[in-house]
Amino acid sequence: MNVTAGQLKPQPLPREKLAGLSGKETLEMVMNGTLPAPPFAQTTLIHLVEVEEGRIVFAGQPDFSFLNPMGTVHGGWIATILDSAMGCAVHSTLKPGQLYATTAMTINYVRPLLADSGEVRCEATVVYAGARMATSEGRLIDGKGRVIAHGSESCLVFDAR
């Protein structure tokens, strides 16, 4: 994602603005450019494409810079897009004034991802959203509809104060 006219420079989200927004509202504003994308999004070539309460879709473009010594996309990049989607699925359920932090993540890698695979999609949904704990699961799918990896995540939900 390049910064062009009319786009905000990637940066951490302003806490004072987030305090009055639900998680879904915050993510919608990031997706439509009203709030800036986080800095890592530009580096990792990952961006939000769909936001619903309890469901998120990210798209990503693996490229040469993400290759490991074997010539496949590094598992850390795959983990990053899965963590982003699964965490944001939880984020989409938060009330104004709530934050979350990932407490555990499990990933199953089922096939290699190549740099020339094209754009991938990562869809995640909330499995459980309680007062203090939430869980989600996600799948990373390549352009041919094949599952590359899938996982689950647990998050602690807490007040921003």
From TrEMBL:
Q: Which domain of life is it from?
A: Bacteria
Keywords assigned:
Hydrolase
Per the database entry, which stretches of residues form a coiled coil? none
Q: Where are the transmembrane segments?
A: none
| Stored InterPro entries | ACOT13, HotDog_dom_sf, PAAI_dom, Thioestr_dom
Q: Which PANTHER family match?
A: ACYL-COENZYME A THIOESTERASE 13, THIOESTERASE SUPERFAMILY MEMBER-RELATED
Please report which protein family the annotation says this sequence is part of: Belongs to the thioesterase PaaI family.
- The protein depicted here goes by the name Uncharacterized domain 1-containing protein
Q: Which organism is it from?
A: Neomesorhizobium albiziae
